[in-house]
Write a structure and sequence with these properties.
CATH superfamily of the largest domain in chain B: f41 fragment of flagellin, N-terminal domain
Distance between the termini of chain B: 27 Å
Helix content of chain A: 55-70%
Largest interface: A-B, 68 and 67 residues
Number of domains of chain B: 2
Structural class of chain A: alpha+beta
CATH architecture of the largest domain in chain B: Up-down Bundle
Number of helices of chain B: 9
Order of helices and strands of chain A: HEEEEHHHHEEEEEEEHHHHH
Strand content of chain B: 5-15%
Largest sheet of chain B: 3 strands, antiparallel
Oligomer: heterodimer
CATH class of the largest domain in chain B: Mainly Alpha
Shape of chain A: rod-shaped
Radius of gyration of chain B: 38 Å
Number of strands of chain B: 5
Structural class of chain B: mainly alpha
Chain lengths: 474, 319
């Protein structure tokens, strides 16, 4: 009698376990495409044994817990490579945009326009009195100045785009930090009774992976299993129940000193507002800041220096010369007031703009074909040393800038491909471990279905046995 | 070893993507016929390309300068040729009238008439213009160099033009030395240190010789007045003047030759640059087309493989 009832229980336990397994398999199949999902399985074990006289019988099966397949070490490596990949990925976008500003392979750029500018003075030296040549000198100078201004404006534009992106990522970073904090608390609550909440762990890992891609993030686990997140080794972002948010601020323009609006800086709010911009060196934010604060700033500095040097050097000679109108001491370009905005403000002086005869080619005011000033100006393009380096000319300096940028962009492109490979490979390793394979799940499903059917059969047998017993005493 | 569902798909997506990126790159090369479409495609090559472009632009201008200077010098040369002939003719006439007592005052007056014409022609040569520029007035090309009294109103300016990087050639002959009798300046080309010629005025070499106008006028007056001594006194100056004109012409010739060398150099350099540019910049079109064909095969193969990989699952066989 006891045995028949017991058989009912055994059948029921098997039925339950098979159902759990089928449910978990179904969950795996349903999540085959969920980002960050690790496959789960039911840890199933035999039930408690009950001694019955001399014999000890097993007592069915039970599901201990649902756990996920996971390799913490592999995850950490993936986060690291994801961070490196995201870094070069961001740099790639903006380095290419910056490079494009200086791309002369299909159109005119500063290199050609500056060369043409100096050649126009060579042309002027052959026929200084010729108004058509003077007009073409002025025209090429205008093209040159407008191209330098264009570069300056476009560099600013790229920096501004980066600012927008930085702002977006900082918002995303804050949201992810809050998500990690929330998941910390949810996991703690869910696992209070010793169970495991695999889906919540997956979600937290995914959030940490995305967070880690933003900047250099380090994590540690406290005694309650909560993850503490620290950024750049100095700023704790998620601690216990608190999220320490980041914010972005811009140094406002100063009307008095004429200083322009500054770059966008990243601050951590608490405990005291601290600037993090310089401390962030990796991840998406690190990549963006590197391009903005190093590469673009270097390009802007160089362009400003070129504009400043060009205007002052040309003016210094031009002022010594005489125009066709016999007057002297006039500037060719407007004298730049400050180095920082020399490129932005580069333009022709008002006299040259309005009067072709004021272009000075002669050293002797009465000699129409005196071309000594024109020749001296035409030689400036190749004159070494004017940019502070005695081995390079203005044009060398510009070409150097383009080549530095090109080398960096090319190297970055290469590491983008490399990092992508590394990441894909690691992701594949992870997939092979924790990813869902539909064939496998289908096979499992069949396996569990069979188990379910067999357990049902056990119930039927138990039932029939009981019926037989009951029928005997009718 | 298991294979995750997503890793299969990722592998497929990755290989297709790579194939398409390479195709895209090749297509770009095919469309532009260029291998270098952005500086980072070949940073070193790009730097070289930029300096080649500079060189080409410079050479274009140098060639233009050279041709212009050549026109100027050729015109000067033909003027000097005419002048040589005129001076030689004057000398012949002077010699004929100076040595022969047979010639009477009447014939001398006729010869004087011819000398007057010669003087007239020399004076017109001295005020020649190319376009609107006087060729013998130094820098002051807008000023008529010689007035009726033969006074020089120009200056000593040598209009230097750059015909090759840092090689300057004077394209004019200032008239003072030539007509009024100073030895021509010796400098024909000026090789600066890269900054062009110095801005300071070159010193005027003062070495008065015979004035061509005055000498011819003296000859004319001698003939008119039948003053044989006076006629004789012009013989030596006329020789010197002839030598001077010939020397100047030789100088002009040397400059023209220098310009021709510069032009030849620049043509050579252009050819060399064009070849270098093509080597760096141009895509090897046969290579590109064959690469594209290969890449297409790869793409097809991956697509076909993907088809096989994506389709069958265990479910297809559980019926």
């Amino acid at each position: 009698m006891a045995n028949s009832v017991n058989l009912f229980n055994i059948g029921k336990s098997g039925l339950m376990v098979s159902k759990h397994s089928m449910k978990t398999t179904g969950h795996n199949i349903a999540n085959v495409n969920s980002e960050g999902y690790s496959r789960q399985n039911v840890d199933q074990t035999s039930g408690p044994t009950i001694p019955s006289g001399r014999l000890t019988f097993g007592n069915g099966a039970w599901a201990k817990k649902v756990s996920r397949v996971n390799d913490e070490y592999l995850d950490k490596r993936i986060w690291l490579e994801q961070k490196n990949f995201s870094n070069v990925e961001e740099k790639d976008i903006y380095l290419q945009q910056t490079e494009q500003i200086f791309n002369e392979s299909n159109n005119d750029g500063l290199n050609r326009l500056a060369t043409r500018f100096f050649n126009e003075f060579r042309k002027l030296s052959t026929d200084t009195g010729n108004t058509a040549i003077r007009a073409s000198v002025r025209e090429s100078s205008k093209q040159l100045t407008s191209d330098i201004r264009r570069m300056d404006a476009e560099l600013r534009e790229v920096a501004k785009n980066i600012d927008t992106r930085v702002e977006g990522y900082v918002g995303e970073l804050n949201a992810l930090a809050r998500e990690v904090r929330d998941l910390n608390l949810m996991i703690e609550r869910a696992e209070m009774d010793g169970g495991e909440a695999p889906d919540l762990h997956d979600k937290r890992d995914l959030a940490l992976k995305k967070l880690g891609a933003m900047a250099d993030i380090s994590t540690s686990r406290d005694k309650n299993g909560r993850i503490t997140v620290t950024m750049s080794g100095i700023a704790p972002i998620v601690v216990g129940e608190n999220v320490n948010e980041l914010e972005v601020m811009r140094t406002p323009a100063d009307e008095k000193t004429g200083k322009k609006e500054g770059r966008l800086d990243i601050y951590i709010k608490n405990p005291v507002s601290t600037k993090l911009t310089e401390a962030i060196k990796s991840g998406r934010l690190g990549g963006l800041l590197e391009v903005r604060d190093r590469d673009i700033v270097a390009a802007q500095d160089r362009i400003n220096k070129i504009a400043y040097t060009m205007a002052n050097e040309v003016n210094a000679i031009h002022r010594q010369g005489f125009g066709l109108d016999g007057a002297s001491g006039r500037d060719f370009f407007k004298t730049p007031t400050r180095l920082e905005d020399a490129a932005e403000s580069l333009s022709l002086s008002d006299t040259v703009e309005s009067n072709l005869d004021s272009i000075a080619a002669a050293k002797d005011p009465s000699a129409q074909s005196d071309n000594r000033i024109a020749i001296a100006i035409s030689g400036l393009g190749d004159l070494k040393g004017s940019m502070g380096d005695e081995n390079s000319s203005i044009l060398d300096s510009y070409n150097g800038l383009v080549s530095e940028l090109a080398v960096k962009t090319a190297a970055n492109k290469k590491s983008l491909v490399f990092q992508k490979d590394v990441l894909t490979q690691l992701e594949n390793v992870r997939e092979s471990l924790v990813g869902v394979n539909l064939d496998e799940e289908t096979a499992n499903l069949i396996q569990f279905q069979h188990a379910y059917a067999a357990n049902a059969k056990v119930l039927q047998v138990a039932d029939e046995t009981l019926q037989t017993v009951l029928g005997t005493f009718r | 070893m298991r294979v995750g569902e997503n890793s299969t798909l990722n592998t497929i997506k990755d290989s297709l993507n790579r194939s398409r990126i390479r195709m895209n790159d090749l297509q770009k090369q095919n469309a532009t016929m260029k291998r270098v479409n952005a500086p980072s495609d070949d940073p070193v090559g790009n730097t070289k390309l930029m300096s080649i472009k500079n060189d080409q632009l410079d050479n274009e201008q140098f060639d233009r300068n050279a041709n212009l200077a050549k026109t100027f010098l050729n015109y000067t040369d033909s003027s000097l040729e005419e002048m040589t002939n005129l001076v030689v003719r004057a000398k012949e006439l002077a010699l004929g009238q100076a040595s022969s007592a047979a010639n009477g005052p009447e014939s001398r007056i006729m010869v004087a008439e011819e000398i007057k014409n010669i003087l007239h022609e020399v004076s017109s040569i001295s005020n020649r213009r190319l376009g609107d520029r006087f060729i013998f007035s130094g820098y002051k090309t807008a000023t008529r160099p010689f007035d009726d009294s033969g006074k020089y109103a120009g200056d000593e300016g040598n209009i230097m033009v750059e015909v090759q990087k840092d090689v300057f050639v004077g394209m004019n002959i200032p008239g003072q030395d030539l007509f009024l009798g100073k030895m021509p300046q010796k400098i024909s080309t000026l090789e600066g240190e890269g900054g062009g010629p110095e801005l300071a005025n070159s010193p005027v070499i003062s070495d008065p010789e015979e004035n061509i106008f005055k000498t011819l006028d003296a000859l004319r007056i001698g003939l008119m007045t039948n003053d044989i001594d006076m006629i004789r006194s012009t013989l030596e100056p006329l020789d010197k003047i002839r030598d001077r004109v010939i020397t100047t012409r030789a100088q002009v010739g040397a400059r023209t030759a220098g310009i021709d060398t510069a032009l030849a150099n620049s043509a050579k350099k252009n050819l060399f640059n064009a070849e270098l540019q093509s080597n760096i910049e141009d895509s090897d079109i046969i290579q590109v087309v064959s690469d594209m064909a290969r890449e297409e095969t790869v793409l097809r193969a991956s697509l076909q493989a993907s088809n096989k990989m994506i389709q069958p699952t265990l479910l297809d066989f559980l019926r």
